[in-house]
Amino acid sequence: MAVEATILGAMDLYVESTGAGEPLVLVHAGVADCHMFDAQVAAFAPRYRVIRYDAQGFGRSPMAQAPRPRAEDLLTVLRAQGVERAHLVGVSMGGATVIDFAVEHPEMVGALIPVASGVSGLDRPADPWLVAQNALEDAALERGDLDAAEQADLQTWLAGPRRRLDEMDPAVVALLAPMARSVLQGDLVRKATPQIEPPAAGRLGEIRAPTLVLVGDLDVDAVLATTDVLARGIPGARKQVLAGTAHLPNLEQPDTFNTLILAFLAEHPLS
Question: How much of the chain, in percent, has pLDDT values that exceed 70?
Fold first, then answer.
């Protein structure tokens, strides 16, 4: 199936569009780039026009000289693609992006599917395990040990707190590792982008899109808690916990993930 790849002018955003039908946008996690969705594009493009892009500072999209809210990137992508309304799937950082977009541009959102999502402006209790992992990664970066930083990053965002990284499927580790390393090399963990104002945490009740909140049962406790906030705060939201997977269920369990997404989208067509 043909893939149309473009760079969006002054915004320097790398965008791919594959397939035809109702637009479906996939927004990647902060540990990866848009190619974390390779298995999703293959499954979704026969039924949908699948749009994915590298957020500013990731993959083939450079960091903006004046960083902007990530929801603004999504708006730029949709306008450039001539899309007035789309289904949105976002993982982790991408989940926070699609939630921000849903409160800022509700008329442009069909189905909303945040996965292992963050939420802008959410004040959540510290997760001791996550704090310790971040400290390991920061210390490795400070001493210039990119290999150790990558291992800490993969332990946190792929294996999670309840498994060892060496217990993971080597093929999944090999898929994520170069993307994670690229993020670390760009020092993106220290380059925050502005959030929308007011942030989404206090505006979840404004979301009217049919929403499926997904999370893996082996994810970090902070993310599991955030998922509960979303399920309670978004009117009519449906929550589903995927067993045996952590922060990136689309990589660990692509068949299950794809089936859930397709079923939910079939329930909520744009027209």
Answer: 94
